[in-house]
Amino acid sequence: MAQTQKNPINPALALVAAAAGWLVPGLGHALLQRWSKAIVYFVAVGMLALVGLWMRGNVFSSNAADAFDMLGFLADIGSGIFYFLAHTINPAGADVSRAAGDYGTRLFATAGVLNFLCVLEALQIGFGSKEEGQAAG
Amino acid sequence: MMLNHFQTMVIFALAVSLAFAFLSKNNLNERLRYAVWAFLAFMVVAIGIGWLMYPFSR
Description:
The complex is a heterodimer of chains A (about 140) and B (about 60).
Chain A: E1 4-5, H1 11-23, H2 27-31, H3 35-54, H4 67-77, H5 81-84, H6 86-89, H7 99-127, E2 132-133
Antiparallel strand pairs in A: 1-2
Helix pairs in contact in A: 1-7, 3-7, 4-7
Chain B: H1 5-24, H2 28-53
Helix pairs in contact in B: 1-2
């Protein structure tokens, strides 16, 4: 049976890691010294967000017109720095008149939601409530 | 950047299965196995649903 370890509870570090992980995907895990997770989460979230923006996906703003726009905003904001740099990365803006733009919208929303999952895991690790194997990095 | 639906789906499946593997498994072997399994599951299910919808596309 694989040995598991629990980390000592450090609420301050957990909260800082969660905030950092939201702002820059993977940074929270880097602060918690989970290096391989940090790299994988940064690459996965970054790849989804960048491809979504390069495909001219829609980035929802906080002044949503309806409930679906608000849901879109809540998903998009999860990608942290990529949300705030969206207009720098793709200055041309969204174009959902083509299918590619629509796919881009979904990819960018997926990046945000995926990063929220990573933030929750960083919180779990920081609060010591996640059991990890010895090789978990 | 112009990607078609299939290429977009591959990128989605790759990123999500990799992240899920690291979120849910603890050692390299388990992660690798889970990532491959999830990636293939994404692809098979998406292509399967695509074919199920094919008769209604015309």
